[in-house]
Design a protein that fits this description.
Layout lengths: L1 H27 L7 E5 L5 H10 L6 H11 L8 E5 L5 H10 L4 E5 L6 H12 L3 H7 L3 H6 L15 E5 L4 H15 L2 H9 L4 H14 L6 H13 L7 H7 L36 H8 L8 E4 L5 E4 L2 H19 L1
Helix pairs in contact: 10-11, 10-13, 11-13
Length: about 325
Amino acid sequence: MIRRFFKFLSYLGLAALALALLFGWWLFGARSIAPAMVVVEPKDPFYKIVVNLKNQKIIGSPWLFSKVAILTGVDRQVIPGRYDFTSPLSNYAVLRKLWMGDIAIITVTIPEGYTLRKIGNLLGQKCGADRAAFDSLVHDSLFLARLGVTAGYAEGYLFPSTYKFRWGIPASEALHAMVRVLFAELPDTLVARGAAMGYSLDKLLTMASIVEWEGMAADELPRIASVYYNRLRKGMRLQADPTVIYGMGELNRKLLLRDYKYPSRYNTYLHNGLPPTPICSPGMNAIRAVLYPEQTGYLYFVADGTGRHLFNTTYEQHLRDTHRIKREIRRGAG
């Protein structure tokens, strides 16, 4: 009887050892998978996360995975975000990634000259930011005032740079980061120079945004700025095509003759002075260009088709250059 009991215990021990080895193999055994990702939304129940892991072939036993996660408290630790998984992968590695909140960090570059619309689209596509929240906050004067933006509108204040944002970053956090970089990059000495020129920060960014949109070559930006200052001093309208485009909702085509009569507050062919807000996010080259413009007598410029411009002091010469460039472009196209 005693011998039979010890034999039973030995079998039980062997079975327990086998189960332990099997569980260890299941937990720590690495396997090959195709690169995959799972997005955890705020308030997602844990069972939905497990289903997504199963559907992406990241785990093979959702029941056992769920039980281990519940026993270890992983199910209560998961934070929202995008989780990236690569081969080789074990169930332990999956559990640890969820426990640690090891969500994807996205490197995203905001180019100079991007508008709020383009920035919102980029953050939504690359970082999973809530586009509706972004669109709301960029018009929220109370929220913006807490960031130091007193203009009541965020256009021009989101500094173009390269950022590292976690996937699913709240729009408020992304906006805070980009505005903070603007103020960090814009020292008090430059703001003071703008004030001495009679330009508030908002007007400074507005002028810089037009120069940014117009210019492609960095060395031309101070010259372009000089044209707009010269026109303002003479009481001329800016007649800047980008302001028309912005007021029409950022066209994806060339302007037509009738577009110059489009009834927008931003249309500087119809209204004197600067538009009511910036029209894009200017970079430091454009900001410095409007603070330190070239001293010229130019009143006109036209794109020459190579990414640069021809500048003139008289309208007659401007027309001659414009017609000549159009003929050259037509000949080149033919």
